[in-house]
Structures are given as structure tokens and as C-alpha cells.
Amino acid sequence: MAYQQRKIPFAGTIDSNPETKPFFEACAAGKLVLPHCGACGKAHWYPRGVCPHCMSQNLSWKDASGQGTVYSFSVMKRAPVPYAIAYVTLAEGPTMLTNIVDCDLDSIRIGQKVALRFVPTEDGPPLPMFTPA
Amino acid sequence: MSLKGAAYIAGAYEHPTRKAPDKSVAMLHAECAIGALADAGLSKSDVDGYFCAGDAPGMGPLSMVDYLNLKVRHMDATDIGGSSYLLHVAHAAEAIAAGRCNVALITLSGRPRSEGMATGTTPRAGNTAQPDVQFEYPYGPTVVNVYAMCAQRHMYEFGTTSEQLAWIKVAASHHAQWNEHAMLRDVVTVEDVVNSPVVASPLHRLDCCVISDGGGALVVVKPEIAASLKRPKVKIIGMGEAPKGQMGGNVDLTYSGARFSGAAAFEMAGVKPADVKYASIYDSFTITVLMQLEDLGFCEKGKGGKFVADGNLISGVGKLPFNTDGGGLCNNHPANRGGITKVIEAVRQLRGEAHPKVQVANCDLALAHGTGGLLGTRHGSATLIMERE
Fold first, then answer.
1. Across the strands, what pairs with B176?
2. Which of A117, B83, B115, B311 has its CA 20 to 30 A from that of B41?
3. How far apart are CA B326 and CA A58, in angstroms?
4. pLDDT digits (tens, 9 = 90+) for B194-238
5. Would you say residue A119 has pLDDT above 80?
6. CB–CB of B363/B328 below 8 Å?
7. Touching B: A residues 30-59, CB under 8 Å
8. Which of B147, B250, B252, B291 to mutate to test the interface with A (most CBs of A within 10 A)?
9. Can you state the angle between helices B143-158 and B286-296, rounded to 10 degrees?
């Protein structure tokens, strides 16, 4: 089945939650950044102002490699334009909710290596999605 | 102090409607309240505790307490989605044990069918102050595809098949054929399920629950009041609750919060899964049932597919009769929240008041379990174990 890109909505504005504004500013610049904790050393997802592993607020943004592996996925067939929602486990550790794009949706498999691809949104910055590596 | 036996379920009522364009949500709540109080043999003036969740119109319990003109001294509006009402029964037992109320009324109602809500297949934006929304909504999470990712991972890890999942729907349909109020009364086969259209892979249309209007209510009372009533006594002997989320990015879709809420309930009750004669298991989707059965300990993790196959959940056929009203898969999923109907059918079974074709013989120990919210992102789990006295 030929791939068709659906329209991607953005929720709110980049500063709806001020502490994650730098994340969306990085997206606008075409970079995926992850919050890393200076106290416990772990990265986390989704980004927030407090480390969910140790409650430290000593967080900094670091560039992600953009490499990941499909943890799970589902092809939403009953939609105006079918799309693949997925959990992708990033090389840095955290697993993020995302879409697999620009490929035959029926070919997606758990364990598949995928790479970062920014996709434009309707009313916000482009957002990180993934395509088979 | 153990809460085992601290309270009894004295009243249970499931609204017979499945489509109610001519009634408000508040009115449906009220009709359910009337039904449950009549079932218990109690009246409005006996109620001194009220519980509701996010389906109730208005601010927490305030609108419904005012609408019904109740005089209560205890209230609780904890909302953990469709599992709220199992948690409410447990919290009512806690409140009764603490002397905060004697007669607790719990109500649920909604009209998603009349309102034409695309319950399972439309992404809902929510409020961007909810901290996950900006990082998830753009990717199109619906109810179905988030549960479907759990099914996909379960298949990958454990070799579970669509045919095994289909057996759960087949069992529910065998029960629904006897329920005159059920939305779907036709008995279906494994082939019917796997040949129905895929909604979100790997889940088919018949892996999904119904969308129905309606509601239900429960009355939970202290032991002295239960003893004074004419109804068979249903004692609450085990309870547990647990949230589960994405754990900061350490996502694990292979298990649910039932692992924790179930263990707590069995420990309190002092019984084992093998002792349970009847189980109400939340069935928003077939995969929901499969994972909960494993996590509650009815079978080993990963063996759920084998456990549910070949009619093992069909009353009179298999080892674990489940959802003998037809469940959410075939009977009723009022307000998109199936927790209260899970308790109601368990009460029917314990009283010996289930349909004769599905009544479990000598049903003296039952479990009801709910999963609310979204199994694949963040959900609540609540477990109750009940005994006929």
C-alpha cells in the first residue's frame, strides 16, 4: 500500500508548558533533544521539569542520536488516512510514543531499526517521527 | 486493621436501556440509584455516603448529590476511568469501617451512543496542561490503537494469536445470547471475529466492546445493615487498586496494574485464583481480558492465549466462567465505563440470580476486576473479591 502522510495536529503552543518549550524550539530547528538528569544520569520520556526516576530538577537537554527500535506498533486502519502509531525505544534508553512514517505500513515489525524523521505539523513545529533505517 | 468483611454489597442495579436519547445523564444516574436502593430494600433517607466518577455531570459529586437531594456525610469522586466503580466499592468499605458512613450509594451513567461519540477511533486532544498531551496527541492515540499496541507486543513476546483472542469474544457471545438486554445476542465463532474488519492492527471490529448508553448503581452497607435486609449477603473480602503508566520512559506493555491490585486483593481475602468460581473481567477489548487474567494469576504470564482458548471462559463448559451477562464485548459498556457492570454481574452470580443458562453452580466466591483509562499509556486497576455468606 502506497504511503500517504496524514495531517499532523499540534496541541497547544510551544510554551503551553514553559519547562518543555526548549524541546519544541529544538524541534523547530530540526533537532531531537532529550532531558537527561544530572543526579541519576538517566534520560526520560515524555519530557518534564522533574526527573521521574529520582525527582531531581537538575536536568539538561542533550541531542539524541535519532536511532531507535520499534517496541510496539498498531496500524490505525479505520481512519481517513491510515497511520502507524508506535512506541520506539531510543538508543539513549527511553521509549517514546510516535509514528512510523514514509514506508509500507504493513511491513512494520517489532524489533525493526528505525531512524528519526521530522514531519511538519498543521500549527506547530515539526515533530519527531521515525522511518525504517 | 484488615478491611476483610468490613462491608457488604446490598444493592445492585443495571439500567436496562442501551440507547437513551430521551433521557439526560443526570436522570439516568437517578434511575440507577432508584433501582439499586429498591434492590437493597433501602430508601433515599438511608444513604449517607455518595460516590461517582468522571461520567457524573457537574463538579465531582456536588451536582448529583444536589439533583438527588441527598444528605450525605461522606463523598468520593475518585476517577480512574472505567475501573472507578470497583475502587469506589473498596473506598466505601474503608469509609464504613472508619465510621464515616453506613450506606454508600455509587452511580454511573452516560449516553455515548445517543451522542454519536466515536469513542474508540478518534484521537481526543484533552487539555495541554495534562503533561503528556503535547507529546502524544499529535501521534493519533485512540482508544483502540493504544490497546492494540499491547496486543501486538503480547503476540511478539508470547506467540499469542488472533484466534486465541477471538475465543474471548466467542465466550462472551455464548453468554449474551441469554441476556434479553444485551446489544449483541448472536453467538459468534472464532472465524467471525478474525474475519471482521481490522480497526487497529491486530485488533478486529469484534475484538472491541460495544458503545452503549445506560448505567448502573451499587449500594454498599455496614454488616449490621446487611444482616437486617432480606437480600442474600455479598461480603467484600478482598480489594486492591493500582495505577500503571509509562514509568518515565521504561514502557512495558506486557503486564497491567492487575499484577498489583490483584495480589493485594487475594492477600486480603486469603484465597487463591483457583478458588474463584466466577470472574468479571473488564473487557473493553479481548486483549484487556487476556492480560488481566494473567496478571491476576489465573494462568502464567504469557499463557493467557492457551488459557482462554476452546471455550475455557464459557459457563458450564470451561474452568473459569467469565462475564456471564455478555460483558462489555456483547452486552453493555455504559458511558464507555464497564466497571460497575462487572460488580453487578458478580453480585448476581453470588446471589444465584444470574440467568439460569449461565448461573455457576454453588457460586460462593467471585472476583471482579477493572482496567480504566488506556492500558497502553496510563491506566488504573481495581480488584474486588466477594463471598456469599
1. none
2. B83
3. 52
4. 999 999 999 999 999 999 999 999 999 999 999 999 999 999 999
5. yes
6. no
7. 42-48, 51-53
8. B250
9. 50
Number of H helices, E strands in chain B: 12, 11
Position B140, amino acid: G
Does pLDDT of B1 surpass 80?
no
Is the Cβ pair A121, B377 closer than 8 Å? no
Residues A22-48 have a mean pLDDT of 98
Residue B99 sits at the chain A interface (C-beta within 8 Å): no
User: Which chain A residues have a beta carbon less than 8 Å from that of B139?
Assistant: 85, 97-99, 127, 129
pLDDT at residue B44 tops 70? yes
Going from the C-alpha of B155 to that of each of A54, B204, B338, the distances in angstroms are: 33, 15, 25
- Whether the CB-CB separation of B72 and B48 falls below 8 Å is answered with yes
Q: Report the SS3 class of residue B86.
A: helix
Instruction: Calculate the average pLDDT of chain A.
Output: 97
Question: What's the pLDDT tens digit per position in A37-74?
Answer: 999 999 999 999 999 999 999 999 999 999 999 999 99
Pairing of strands A67-76, A113-119: antiparallel
Alpha helices, H only, A6-131 = 21-28
Question: Residue B128 is placed in which grid cell?
Answer: 495541554
Q: How confident is the model over B66-77, as pLDDT tens digits? A: 999 999 999 999
Determine whether the interchain pair A78/B133 forms a contact, defined as Cβ–Cβ distance below 8 Å.
no
pLDDT of residue B126: 82
Beta carbons of A95 and B251 less than 8 Å apart: yes
Three-class DSSP category at B348: helix
What is the per-residue burial (b if ≥16 Cβ within 10 Å, else e) of B298-326? bbeeeebbbbbbeebbbbeebebbbbbbb
pLDDT in the model for residue B119 = 81
CB B201 within 8 A of CB A74: yes
